[in-house]
Amino acid sequence: MAEPMVAEVVSAEDIEWGYLNPLRGDASPGAADLWGDRTKDGATGMLVRFNAGFSSPPHIHNITYKGIVINGQMHNDDPDAAEMWLPTGSFWTQPAGEDHITAAKGESNLIYLEIDSGPYLVQPSVQAFDNGERPLNLHRSNMVWLDNTDSHRLTAAGVQSTFLWGSTDIGQLNGSLVKLPAGFQGQVVSSASEFRAIVIEGSIVYSSAKVDGDKNLTAGSYFSSEGEFNHTLAVPDSSEVTLYIRTNDKYEIK
């Protein structure tokens, strides 16, 4: 008997919000888990939103996290560092234990934040430590994109990807950004035991065997699968779409 297909789709409009740092209440950025549970010992992917002009006090985290800007402009660096504003599609990493601040410049600021272990905690700078990792701030203008002539995973014309972290060895986790051109109609085919995709920029019309009809997924939306699965995507003619994909196996976009 065939294994049942496992997949999930979460629209940005249906997300329930809480606080990233509940102890600070309304002074805390908003947060919503897309997958996992940031309060437990496990990997989690979440959305975090910041008010215009937000600037945190210096602090550390007990775990390393990765961030991708969905909307607005973000600065994340040492407390004395010059501001470097990261726009939509930019990527950064924050090592566990390193003292830093986070600030937001846009009228509306939204990021995707990912951890490989939890819980996610905010701690005072006096508890800073060096875990051997080093931070990375990657502005979208410094990314190198590969198309279907460079990557065997991208058989559809006009699709591009850029590798962000991890290993492409089978069974090893990695993260990448993928651009789908305006007017794209095709499928993302995966057999990975973990396949997760977040809409970073633009919107897609999504359909699959686990969804009744078509579903419009805007920036901040999420879809995932385990095992053999086809995700059917259509992009309006008016805009390009950027997806962030986390997986532990190869996938094809065709």
On the 0-100 scale, what is the average pLDDT?
A: 93
What is the CATH-assigned architecture of the largest domain? Sandwich
If you compute it from the alpha carbons, what radius of gyration comes out, rounded to the nearest whole angstrom? 18 Å
The main β sheet shows up as: 7 strands, antiparallel
- SS strand fraction: 35-45%
End-to-end Cα distance, whole Å, is 28 Å
- Strand order in the largest sheet: 2-3-4-10-6-8-12
Question: How many helices?
Answer: 0
The general outline is: globular
Poorly predicted regions = none
Any idea how many domains? 2
State the helical fraction.
under 10%
Q: Pairing-aware structural class of the strands and helices?
A: mainly beta
- Topology as H/E string? EEEEEEEEEEEEEEEEEEEEEE
Query: CATH class of the largest domain, please?
Result: Mainly Beta
Organism: Methylophaga thiooxydans DMS010
Pfam families: DUF4437 (PF14499)
Protein name: DUF4437 domain-containing protein
Any descriptors?
254 residues, mainly beta, Jelly Rolls, 2 domains, seven-stranded antiparallel β-sheet, six-stranded antiparallel β-sheet
Walkthrough of the structure:
With 254 residues, the chain is mainly β. It has two domains: 36-141, Jelly Rolls; 143-253, Jelly Rolls (Sandwich), CATH 2.60.120.10. Helix content is 0%, strand content 43%. It has no helices and 22 strands. The chain has strands spanning 6-10, 18-19, 30-35, 44-51, 60-61, 65-71, 74-77, 91-94, 101-104, 108-115, 122-123, 136-138, 160-166, 174-180, 185-190, 195-201, 204-207, 215-217, 222-226, 229-234, 241-247, 251-253. A seven-stranded antiparallel beta sheet has the order 2-3-4-10-6-8-12, with no helix packed on it. The chain has a six-stranded antiparallel beta sheet with strand order 1-19-16-21-14-13, with no helix packed on it. Strand 17 (204-207) and strand 18 form a beta hairpin. The relative contact order is 0.20. The mean pLDDT is 93. This is DUF4437 domain-containing protein. It comes from Methylophaga thiooxydans DMS010.
